[in-house]
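In this notation, each integer encodes one residue's backbone shape. One such record reads:

___
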Amino acid sequence: MLAGNYLGSHGRKVVAALMVVVLLAVYWQGLASPFVLDDFTNFKGLENVTDSVASFLSYITNNNSGILGRPVSMLSFALTYTIAGSVDPFIFKLTNLIIHIINGWLIYQLMQPLMGFCGYGDNKKNAALCVAVFWLFTSLHGSTVLYAVQRMTQLSAMFSLMGLWLYIQGRISCIAFGKGRKRILTAYCCVILATLSKENGVLLLLLFFMLEVTVFHYRGERGKSKILIASNVAVLGGGLLFIAQLATTENIPFLDYSQRPYTMLERVLTETRILWVYVQEIVLPSGVDIGLYHDDIIVSKGFFEPLSTIVSVVAWLVVIGLMGGMLVYKKYTLSLVGICLFLAGHLLESTFINLELYFEHRNYLPSLGLWIILIDVCVKVAEKSEYRAYLYVLASFILMINVYVICVESGLWSQTYKQSKLTVLKHPDSYRAQNQWAAELIKYERYADALKVYTAIGEKHKRLNPVSQVQKIWVYCMANLAPHESVYSFDIVYMKGADALLYNSAWLYLLDEVQAGRCEHVSIPSIIRNIEGWLRKEIVKEGGGDALWDITFVWLKLNEYQYGAENSLYKAEQIFALGGVKAGIYAVSRYLSMGLIKKAESLYQTIERAISAEKKEQYHEDMVIFSQRISAGK
């Protein structure tokens, strides 16, 4: 199959059909798995989508994922919901699998002209099919297909693959016949769609440049194409100017590492090791590191801490040296394309930008590069017939290992209890894995075990101990148990970034339990007193407490539950008097909802007089709504 043209057109269709059936079989169990993590935040509001254009636009434009909002991906979620009629995980994940299959077909299509141009001749279709099959069954893609919200990654890859296919066809046509400009232009349009699906789609421009440098060498029908050279220089020049602008600009969120347990340099050094882990897990997965939680990775504090850092850096320098040799001597061109594709695909998410260290979905498109290398090497080795049989055995083994790991992972996705337990065993130092395990224990009413897990989390992850302390209180609520008095001596801290999201979510979850009346044996007054004592000190430091609004909001709501709305609103006005504008806005809103129009109007006028022009602009929309509601209520 690799060395000769053993499969005809009919044979390739049979193989393709068989691959689709096998893909459905190995992923089927996982398609019924529940939503997780970011699924909930991104699918929030889908129930408000109707047949009207306005409802679609409202959902598409109110997303905070990425700096562009990812409208193409959000549109696809809205369409899935409209067709399905509900937010059904099975339908969303089945759609992801269909997109995955489409992407495999696109890989088959784009690899044929590329391989033909690189000298594969009649064997290009079989070799292209091999690349597509190995990519489709890459076990690392399991969490991309089954994690519904990662359709963003899939769509970005889909438009990137379309763009590559069109660009390759257009360039070959341009070199051979002086035509193909429309296809090239359409390929550049795919950059827009890929980027609006997920921001790393912009790397498609870099992939076009990579193809020119490694494969096409800016050739036209008659010598070098000046237009292509100029366009590439313009795009790369613009990119370099943009990077230079970023480097000289302060307070850019995705370059701010103040809330991370590592610096930018430490992240870059760590990623040199992680990239090699990706390589190993793509080609020959161990199954050990497959999953969603990888927050236990050891950070590289320097080139020699850990020692594997310098080994990884040197190894990548060797790879770059080999790339230079391939480029100069114009040998192993297809393998060179594969290396470039893998590294270019990781340029944004695995370098300097302030992101989590490790995520499997980052390899969705870059993994194609590794399979291109593998098939290219296999084809060249298979030309020597004495090695052919061993090669087939090795290739089949690699494919079977990937299929097996997908089967196991798909089954685990549908069994969340078992998945969480195994993830904790694989990642005992992962805060998120431990947190998920505690949630599963609570689901099965194993409250004592859940309390032990939260205690262990607090001891192991000191920075997040305040989160665990709050979580322990709502476990007591759900267990209908009275906690020891020491439980109320919890630490209250001011957190930022990702830690703040965890902390605030824990408090809001506790508030939900209290308001639902499930905390009969928990002393709400003790919680209120602890928060109030901390707020009295911190509000003065923070100049009014707007920065502390999340915990303040919980405190006010607990007061309302325990002592009534009048007590809560009195305290809200006290905080406003100290400079907490959000507390004042909250109080006006509550007065209006209670029908106390005069009190609402009085406080509204006080806020109007007291706050600065900057604050007025910040809360302009709220104030306009309040004014209208007050006028209507008189």
